[in-house]
Amino acid sequence: MICSSNERDILFKKLASKIVHNPYLDRTLVSFQGNKYAAFSSWFKYREGFSERLVTYIIENSQLQPGILLDPFSGVGSSLFAAATLGWQTIGIELLPVGCFATQARIIAQQINLKLFKSIIYELKQINFIDYSDQSNAFNHLKITQGAFSEIDEKKLVGYIYYCNKFIVDKEIRTLLLYAAFCILEDISYTRKDGQYLRWDYRSGRSKSKKQFNKGNILTFEVAIIQKLKQIELDLMVMRFNLIYLVIIYHYCQKINCLILKIHNR
Ligand SMILES: C[S@@+](CC[C@H](N)C(=O)[O-])C[C@H]1O[C@@H](n2cnc3c(N)ncnc32)[C@H](O)[C@@H]1O
Questions:
Q1: Which atom of ligand 1 is nearest to the CA of 49?
Q2: Which residues sit opposite 149 in a β-bridge?
Q3: pLDDT in tens, 89-114
Q4: Could you give the angle at which helices 114-125 and 171-183 cross, rounded to 10 degrees?
Q5: Percent of the chain with pLDDT over 70
Q6: Among 17, 159, 203, 224, which residue has the least CB neighbours within 10 Å?
Q7: Residues within a 6 A CB radius of ligand 1
Q8: Among 41, 95, 100, 101, which residue has the most ligand 1 atoms within 8 Å of its CB, making it the best to mutate?
Q9: Pairing between strand 197-200 and 191-194?
Q10: In the CATH scheme, what architecture does the domain 18-110 have?
Q11: What φ, ψ does residue 101 adopt, rounded to 5°?
Q12: What distance in angstroms lies between residue 94's CA and the mean position of ligand 1's atoms?
């Protein structure tokens, strides 16, 4: 184990001649930042993850034939999905429910009824979720989560969860709607996760540090949830469009192939 920067420097000097700098593997690629604009993985900020482009890069440069990829610490499934896109079968193991939920939501999203999802988003826009929140479905807070949201936004969040569980019949769409709410928790809260620490915005009244922390714009529940649902809808539309596009190209190529074969057989 390397304990101090001095020892690290010594080790670095010792191995310097063996270290090859690969400019492709920049900071964004090896961290979560590389997922910022990627469909699915940008929906929820899973800071412990690494970018899917990194996994794609590693697999493509490994010269391995597609087989079974096992990720025993699969987080939100970045490696699994990246590998699956390249034709691998995948198995993931993850300890935290957060990672399992994100993985499950992504699998569901890929096969969801998009037309129905769109119409439900439209329906949700008309609803005042406060009407569905009362003491019976309020959060059972732990001390650490107490005061994380403004009172009004917490009520709307609770009402939304209640509404989805009670009135959204399609199980897959319900899961995706609940996942959307999960994805916006930080956007609507007074907190921000920094490494292993939870920082509290001064507006929460809970900040203990002398220096006031201002996390910037805190979205209202309605704005955040509709933004998130629209992002999901758009990503799914683009994905379907790409698929249709690929199918058309595939058929087109097959036709050309047939034509070439016919010409060849003449
Ligand atoms: C660095 S993250 C993996 C990130 C993942 N490859 C991704 O990009 O989403 C490591 C993961 O291992 C999980 N983990 C830690 N100990 C574990 C264990 N004993 N069994 C299963 N998962 C575990 C953590 O919950 C965490 O999500």
A1: 8
A2: 189
A3: 999 999 999 999 999 999 999 999 99
A4: 60
A5: 89
A6: 17
A7: 46, 48-50, 71, 73-76, 78-79, 93-96, 99
A8: 95
A9: antiparallel
A10: 3-Layer(aba) Sandwich (3.40)
A11: -60, -45
A12: 6
